[in-house]
Amino acid sequence: MGSRFDGQTVVVTGAASGIGAVIARHFADAGANLVVSDIEEGRLGAVADEIAASGARRPVVKAGDLSREDVAGSVIKSAVDNFGALDILVNNAGGGIIKPFLDHTPDTLRTTIDRNLWTALWCTWHAVKVMKARGYGRIVNIGADSVRNGLWDHAAYNAAKGGVHAMATGLAREFARDGITVNVVAPCIVETPQVKQITLKAPKALQRFVDVVPMGRPAEMDEVASMVCYLASKEASFVTGQVISVNGGSTML
């Protein structure tokens, strides 16, 4: 076990699977006190059990719909109640409903915004209060490289993730002198379990999203998690208000 985050308390949202679960494991391996949250309680508990089985401290599990202000508030409160502080918030909860814009319904549009923007907004609103009082904090949002390069079928998703990007820049300036940094990690297509399943069923369905990546492959989940951990670390103390792409070159500069 490493010691990079020993004694620090970390909240990771959307941690029941995929990128969020990998991010949680990275922090656990580095010694953090973890609170993990997701709407999928069963899978979230399984991730916590796997982390404990690896020899790390078992995360505190807080399941619920983070697009609700009261649920988001209870997750942040849980970090303080269990560990006395909150040092790092990773806003990973999300999930796109990727389809042509005119195929969306009012419900799918609302769900896309709720999952990706309101989850991050409410968790951050509660977290910043705690961090400001302590004079220290790291907030890392998971954004999307598609906001920059405009992928097919991503208009609604980009509306939500674009808000996540923009929120970070405003917060970074507002709280820069409170010891709080706010950044975004923006991946391209990532080799998640969901992407693997789609690829097995329909090999050509996602190829156009891979084709825009100069390296010719999706990102690995560990590659995304590593950037999150850097931005959450004390080493990144002078990095704030940035959208950093982990994208194999699909956008540059």
From TrEMBL:
Gene3D superfamilies membership: NAD(P)-binding Rossmann-like Domain
Domain of life: Bacteria
Pfam families assigned: adh_short_C2 (PF13561)
InterPro entries: NAD(P)-bd_dom_sf (IPR036291), Sc_DH/Rdtase_CS (IPR020904), SDR_fam (IPR002347)
Stated family: Belongs to the short-chain dehydrogenases/reductases (SDR) family.
Keyword Coiled coil listed: no
Example GO molecular function: oxidoreductase activity
Keyword Coiled coil set for record: no
Cited PANTHER family: OXIDOREDUCTASE, SHORT-CHAIN DEHYDROGENASE/REDUCTASE FAMILY (AFU_ORTHOLOGUE AFUA_5G02870), SHORT-CHAIN DEHYDROGENASE_REDUCTASE FAMILY PROTEIN
Annotated protein name in UniProt: 2,3-dihydroxy-2,3-dihydro-p-cumate dehydrogenase
Keywords: Oxidoreductase
